[in-house]
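Journal club prep — side note

Before the paper discussion, L.F. wants everyone to see what a predicted structure for a comparable chain looks like in token form. Sequence:
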Amino acid sequence: MVVAQKFTFQYNRLEDRLKMLINYDSVTARMDFFITRAMLFRLIPVIEQLLIKCSETSPKPHREFSNLHVNSSLSTATRHQTDTTTLELLDTQTALLLEKVDLTWHADVRGVRLLFYANGKAECQAMLSAKHFADVVHGMIRVVPHTSWGMAPNILEI
């Protein structure tokens, strides 16, 4: 199973889906997922609850997890310098349709475990600190075409 270290989000206008690129700069550990609007709307209430837990103060210091990178671009037509070179060069596999996401809050380490499912099985996992989870979620929400998807740009402002 692939362990997610880097998250990059793009909006694919042709597919009308978000594209989540996991570990975009790794030939062996890269996974691309399409996220539909319906899937995102099912995840929003769970994400919102986890963001509330992430924002609560805790007397325990939280453990930092692996080095995490979050990148987002507003559309596939608008690309950053990194996107133009690395993302296209390593785009060797078809994106999988994200079928399910298990999100589990771990209070002892103040972190969120994510399992991404496609093809009926867990394909990718990540263990993120509260801050990193919030960064990933906000990176994803930034690329949503808010008007056409009927979503407020500040839907997850906590």
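L.F.'s comment for the group: Residues 2 and 124 are 5 Å apart (CA to CA). Keep this in mind when we get to the figures.
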